[in-house]
Amino acid sequence: MSGYRLGTTSYILPEAILPNVRYLAPRVDDVELVLFEVEDGGSNLLSLEEVSELAALAVQHDLSYTVHLPLDLRLGIEGDKRHRSLETAKVVIDRTRALDPWAYVLHLDGKNVQDPATWVDQAARALDLAADWAGGPERLAVENLEGYPLDFIDPVLDRVPVSRCLDIGHLWLDGQDPVPYLERHLGRARVVHLHGIGSRDHQALTHIDPAELRRVLAVLDTGGFTGVLTLEVFGREDLESSMGMLRELGVAAWTG
Questions:
Q1: pTM: predicted TM-score of the whole model, two decimal places
Q2: b/e for 199-235, b at 16 or more Cβ within 10 A?
Q3: Among 26, 52, 59, 102, which is least packed by CB within 10 angstroms?
């Protein structure tokens, strides 16, 4: 049996977060709480009552949580720490701290960078600030994104001892072989995201050749990964078929 925890997202059923976690709690080891912008019009920020029930479900089912922050983390103009992404991150972290999340997964906004050195400085400062709120830099897991060079975030992560979230689906989407990337960075990874690539990403693992999936899972096993492997899909059918594939490979114990 693998040494990592197997989980999925909080949007498997077409309902809000809490009904999803009630459904998933007996079936998975971890739930990634996917939050929208916690502001007017699009907020799904958890209430204190919902957080209390999520905490009780975690105790009852030996469940852990990861939290996906809703905005790409960065400082504002001239290094202003009051940028909306940081303010939103603090709201989310404060509200979910009682759940003792395994990790806060986040993206770094690096599009249209005019001055790479300044961007690295500001991104590192943003992580420093968020790390204080999260209870330590290891709780922050910076995710690799599609459409970026493989080493794009390395200069930032060289400056701040945060963790990584290794998104295998994003590597497949870019036509990259994920195995060398995993072998290089698995020791610093707290979370791994796995999803198939069909007409888009975040689809069932049935879109992936089983031999390719075996290669990836073998690296997790031989590398001694003990974090969270999240099936980052958003529907019951995709989750069930993905779990079926993992079960055939001797990984999952999905009860349906």
A1: 0.94
A2: eebbbbbebbeeeebeebbebbeeeebebbbbbbbbb
A3: 59
User: 31 pairs with which residues across the strands?
Assistant: 8, 65
Nearest to residue 194, comparing CAs of 164, 223, 225, 228? 228
Length of the chain in residues, anyone?
A: 256
- pLDDT tens per residue, range 5-47: 999 999 999 999 999 999 999 999 999 999 976 655 567 889 9
Instruction: Show the tokens assigned to 235.
Output: 């529907």
User: What is the Cα–Cα distance from 251 to 5, expressed in whole angstroms?
Assistant: 10
Closest by Cα among 125, 122, 116, 163 to 144 = 163
Residue 93 phi/psi, 5° resolution?
-65, -45
Q: Residue 166 in contact with residue 192, Cβ under 8 Å?
A: yes
Domains of the chain plus CATH, in order, are 5-248 (3.20.20.150)
Q: Which two structure tokens, joined as six digits, stand for 69? A: 């922050």
